[in-house]
Amino acid sequence: MLDLLVKNATLSDGRTEMSIGVVGDRIVDLDQALDAPAITVIDAAGQLVSPPFVDAHFHMDATLSLGLPRINESGTLLEGIALWGELKPELTQQAVVDRALAYCDWAVAKGLLAIRSHVDICDERLLAVEALLEVKRRVKPYLDLQLVAFPQDGVLRWKDSKGRASAFDLLKRSLDLGVDVVGGIPHFERTMAEGAKSVELLCELAAHRGLRVDMHCDETDDPMSRHIETLAFETQRLGMQGRVNGSHLTSMHSMDNYYVSKLIPLMRESGVSAVANPLINITIQGRHDSYPKRRGMTRVPELLAAGVPVAFGHDCVMDPWYSLGSGDMLEVAHMGLHVAQMTGQKAMRECFKAVTETPASILGLDGYGIAKGCFADFVVLQARDPIEAIRTRATRLKVVRRGVVIAECSPNVSALHLTSRPASVNFLKP
Ligand code: FE2
Fold first, then answer.
1. What CATH architecture does domain 2-51+369-415 belong to?
2. 216 CA → ligand 1 middle, Å
3. 379 Cβ partners below 8 Å, 6+ apart?
4. pLDDT per position in the chain (430 positions), as tens?
5. Which residues have C-beta under 5 Å from ligand 1, the single-atom ion?
6. How far is the CA of 143 from the centre of ligand 1 (A)?
7. Every domain of the chain and the residues it spans
8. Is residue 410 classed exposed, middle or buried when 0-12, 13-18 and 19+ CB atoms within 10 A define those classes?
């Protein structure tokens, strides 16, 4: 007897009329038109059943703080960092926990069940670290929260006001407390040389501790910001292939093509992945340009073509850097698709993977996917394929975690009151 049977599912790889059998928290059967007794049956009615959405780049310590203590008027990265610096001394652990838990509620409702969040460690109290470790424990039954020790003000640049601790000490202390991944921000260090030094220092720390690395890297329009080269080189030197990610990489948008033709193969050889953050990149980059204005997102199709895994991250929701967002990774994929002009059928499917499978592998999630033996985690979407899901930012009809429905939503249907026209529309292809 199955605990759960999902019938008539379409999978993101194109298989149709699939049945998913679940016992306990695992998928035990996956076949066409499986007919076995089950305690609960969900008829997907031909709609897409996808593994959960995964966000490979987020800032949960700042989320939902919009307006505290004021709004970012210029909308620039640097005013955002300054604003966060004003808010930090006023933060309380309880407020950070409450906002993060509220965001996780949104995430669950949107079928987003795994998030890699950076947490700012440039604070001698490590208040946000303590808060997000508490959140990680509390959401564990329904959401995988992976934390990155992120020196927002530069691991070499930042000094605490009383001179008691360096950012590097605080970063190590946060790892001791249970933060999972080593972060960095080389382009925010004082000089290019200091930036390179920070990459070396942090990669050596991660190698020594057997941890993954995820750095904010080259989040600038300066084509000479080339810390990704150092990051890839260090990854190779230290044998950390498959464990290192470069986030943003926006300078690559503006780099010389010849240089990029050498850089991308280095990234490929080093097994370094990339995360673009389309909503943030398109609003924050190109701010010093008049016209034409650069888009500023990294070279997603070219990286993918070379075999470099690329995910799309949300980065920010209602915080000092970005006033919008709702935890909807289909909105993120939608923007990424447009900014990268990935409009071919295969390319659009790649954009769906960039918010599901690819970030799952970057995070190193165990048991992810719709396959026998995987965790029974999935989302029933009001769409028939990944492209339609992105086009409509499909309603999450059911969100299942470990075999249990943890969120559901009515289908998106508008009633029409017109003569000689249908009584309703649902925006799906007829
Ligand atoms: Fe970020």
1. Roll (2.30)
2. 6
3. 49, 50, 51, 52, 53, 111, 396, 398, 399, 400
4. 999 999 999 999 999 999 999 999 999 999 998 889 999 999 999 999 999 999 999 999 999 999 999 999 998 888 998 999 999 999 999 999 999 999 999 999 999 999 999 999 999 999 999 999 999 999 999 999 999 999 999 999 998 777 778 999 999 999 999 999 999 999 999 999 999 999 999 999 999 999 999 999 999 999 999 999 999 999 999 999 999 999 999 999 999 999 999 999 999 999 999 999 999 999 999 999 999 999 999 999 999 999 999 999 999 999 999 999 999 999 999 999 999 999 999 999 999 999 999 999 999 999 999 999 999 999 999 999 999 999 999 999 999 999 999 999 999 999 999 999 999 999 998 8
5. 315
6. 20
7. 2-51+369-415, 56-363
8. exposed
Distance in angstroms (rounded) separating the CA atoms of residues 118 and 96: 14
Tell me the CA–centroid distance for residue 374 and ligand 1, in Å: 30
User: For residue 257, how far is its CA from the centre of ligand 1 (angstroms)?
Assistant: 26
Pairing of strands 212-217, 181-182: parallel
Can you give the pTM of this predicted structure? 0.97
Cα(362) to ligand 1 centroid in Å equals 16
What is the Rg, in whole angstroms, of the alpha carbon atoms belonging to the chain? Answer: 22
222, two tokens: 């300066």
> Catalytic residue positions?
219
CATH architecture for residues 56-363: Alpha-Beta Barrel (3.20)
